[in-house]
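# step 3/5: fold
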Amino acid sequence: MRERRNAVPGDAVCHPVFARFYARFSVAADTGAGVAAHRAELLSGLSGRVVEIGAGNGLNFAHFPSAVSEVVAIEPEPALRALARGAAARSEVPVDVVPGLAEALPLKSEAFDGAVCSLVLCSVRDVGRALGEVMRVLRPGGELRFFEHCRAGTRGLAAVQRAVDRTVWPLLFGGCHTARDPVAEIGSAGFVLGVHRRLRVPERGIAVPTSPCVLGVARRPFPGAEARAGEAEPGGGA
């Protein structure tokens, strides 16, 4: 079911130091910061064939429901991809981990019922192009589930985000930009926004640039359908 399109080397993204840090930090965040519960909420109700963009070390795999028939997990970073393959071997649903970039998915058009972007749009080089690729591989009516860092709702933390994004943060954290607006980007890419809510990770304690997050769903519209945006009451501020 794969199709090489706009071919880009699978190891074009290589952050070995960050990969080692992320592999440890992400596991700790799942338990200590409540991220595992957000992963479960993100993936609940998915079914059929699903593509995950930027699978990292595969922490989402344990949360895919049994109605998912197959997951194709795209991960460009070699060290994280190796860890994801280990997680795939332990998954209760079939998971195929493959190299590739979000901006040039090595997949056929309209081949998936669902797509997952989990803490990845902050680090892709071209968000619009990446979302265009997600739109391409989803069937009309297919769901995009997203759990992403987002711009803070408070002036002080938003200023901190802008400052760190211009300086050290992307260099230290694998290209991550904390002040992006994924909801606006998803809407601009042509998706129909569904229920989504802002949240804070962790829920309590000192806020850091990556604390403001948004979790929700969007759909690829059917041909001729008009996009309408809707937002649930925020689940938390930052």
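# step 4/5: annotate
Helices lie at 16-32, 35-43, 78-90, 127-137, 155-166, 169-172, 182-188.
# step 5/5: archive (pending)
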